[in-house]
Amino acid sequence: MAKRILIIEDNADLARLLAVNLRDQSYEVDSADDGPGGLAKTERTTYDLIILDVMLPGLDGLEVCRRIREKAAYVPIIMLTSRSSETDRVVGLEMGADDYVTKPFSIVELIARIKAIFRRVEQLRQNCTPSAAGRIESGDLVVDPERRAVTLRGNPVTLTAKEFDLLLYFTRSPGRVFTRSQLLDAVWGYGHDGYEHTVNSHINRLRAKIEEDPAHPRYILTVWGVGYKFTERDAAGKGQ
Questions:
Q1: Do residues 45 and 109 both lie within one domain?
Q2: 240 contacts 139 by C-beta, under 8 angstroms
Q3: DSSP code of residue 56
Q4: What secondary structure does DSSP assign to 71-135, as a single string?
Q5: Do 167 and 207 belong together in one domain?
Q6: Alpha-carbon distance 182 to 196, whole Å?
Q7: Which of 71, 101, 126 is the last residue of a domain?
Q8: Same domain, 18 and 118
Q9: Of 176, 171, 131, whose CA–CA distance to 151 is shortest?
Q10: Which of 42, 48, 142, 222 is the most exposed place for a label (fewest CB within 10 A)?
Q11: Pairwise CA distance, residues 29 & 201, whole Å
Q12: For residues 41 and 32, is the Cβ–Cβ distance under 8 A?
């Protein structure tokens, strides 16, 4: 089945150009020219990827991204921005964007990034084959890859899509130390060199949600001078 892409872009000429080139790649394409219209389409239709401009009438792209990320279902988002400052790029990533492209950009490069995201999503799905045995338990923490759900002491934990992907990546390799660059590449994909602080902020938010005392974590541990690791499962222990 052809993948469906939503373009939320108020520049009509650019939106048409993107749509033509994406349809040439056999994607199904919808479009919206403002933030509220784009959000409304995501309510009615399931998309495989969203191309989202930052500067939009009605609601800006950052707010649209934030609201999409409040939903349980995960959809990859590529943000388009005319802004070139590091701050704007970081804000987009922090809001949950998977990638960003600065205008003016190459259509060929954008399509390459789209394909890279689809490959990464497919790899994550293959690594999360549905089965009861796929549940990962560590102390009081349970991660269910099939349902993309997390519980702590039996209580549900609400995570963003990227927080869940990061936690799942950790829990699949307990005890293994990852650098920030490795985590950035595995969870966010290529093209984000130099944005390791995005990893730091997501880990801080994860700790706030799953650690009894985030200042003294027992699940996501800092390996000073290297990066982070998820505790060995036996070491997590219940009721400690």
A1: yes
A2: yes
A3: -
A4: SSS---EEEEES---HHHHHHHHHHT-SEEEESS--HHHHHHHHHHHHHHHHHHHHTT---GGG-
A5: yes
A6: 9
A7: 126
A8: yes
A9: 171
A10: 222
A11: 33
A12: yes
* 150/113 same-domain check: no
Single-letter code of the amino acid located at 111:
I
| Tokens describing residue 232 | 């060995």
Evaluate if pTM is beyond 0.85. Answer: no
Q: Quick one: 137 and 102 in the same domain? A: no
Specify whether 101 is located in the same domain as 29: yes
Q: Which domain holds residue 221?
A: 132-236
Tokens (6 digits) for 53: 């401009």
> Tokens at residue 132, please?
């009861």
Helix-helix angle 86-95:196-210, to 10 degrees: 30
Same domain assignment for residues 25 and 113: yes
Number of independent structural domains in the chain: 2
